[in-house]
Amino acid sequence: MKMLITGGTGQLGRAFSELTNIADVQLFSFSSRELNVTDTQQIRTIFNQIRPDAVIHAGAFTAVDAAESQADAAFKVNVTGTRNIAAACLHYSSKLIYISTDYVFDGKSSHPYTEFDQPNPLNIYGRSKLEGEKIAARICPRLYIVRTSWLYGLGHNFIHTILKLAKEREFLTIVNDQIGSPTNSLDLAQGIMTLVHTWDYGTYHMSNKGQCTWHEFAREIVRLTGQSVDIRPISTAELALPAARPAYSVLRNYMLELAGGDYFRSWQEGLQDYIKK
């Protein structure tokens, strides 16, 4: 299988290169500079050269707060860019895996969100990703929409930030009123790789099991690494961020459960494994 990856230098894109059980897959990974998803001519050229069997569309405008003041840029990449990739997949009969987010939900649920719950994004980023889902579904019949949450992996992420600040400060203040499921990018990459070898198209939630606040997540990072910094809780309102966040965005991998294959481990196990490596 020839697999093309957009956003190849991101946390998920880089995770695919770490998988060890993909002997039957030839990876073609492109950064946003190497493959601009808003450039249809560049997309045509690359698709014609590779003729991929599957495309992992991980490239996106992901700056949640910046999107509030740069809505045109967010929609151009996340919607128009997705349309362009979906059209190329249709032309070359490629499977498309569109990476989406827990931010398509408003956080007002009292239970983990399944694939059958109604999206209602609170911010521009979430809206643009949801519209990307919709436009991909209108164009490409061989489509998997994969929503994930609180992703971390190689590169700059929340874990690295906490570890860096823990060495520099006596105490940290971390939000304690947002609840989600931290997800190891290697686990997500493996889940996607398993899914793409099937014909079971549709929408899937893929996150590590369990839930925590950002404050609890930070405390576990510090505990596992033997740091001694004090971590104090604060509210989201105290941060006064431009973009609203869902208070509760835990995802339930319900479609995987129905298929008898929810192979995702707990977020604690995923984090422990990441820190060991």
Automatic annotation (TrEMBL):
Keywords: NADP, Oxidoreductase. It comes from the Bacteria. Residues 1-276 form the RmlD-like substrate binding domain. Catalyzes the reduction of dTDP-6-deoxy-L-lyxo-4-hexulose to yield dTDP-L-rhamnose. One of its GO terms (cellular component) is cytosol. The keyword Oxidoreductase applies. One of its GO terms (biological process) is dTDP-rhamnose biosynthetic process. Pfam families: RmlD_sub_bind. Its EC number is 1.1.1.133. It comes from Sporomusa termitida. InterPro entries: dTDP_dehydrorham_reduct, NAD(P)-bd_dom_sf, RmlD-like-bd. This is dTDP-4-dehydrorhamnose reductase. Pathway: Carbohydrate biosynthesis; dTDP-L-rhamnose biosynthesis.
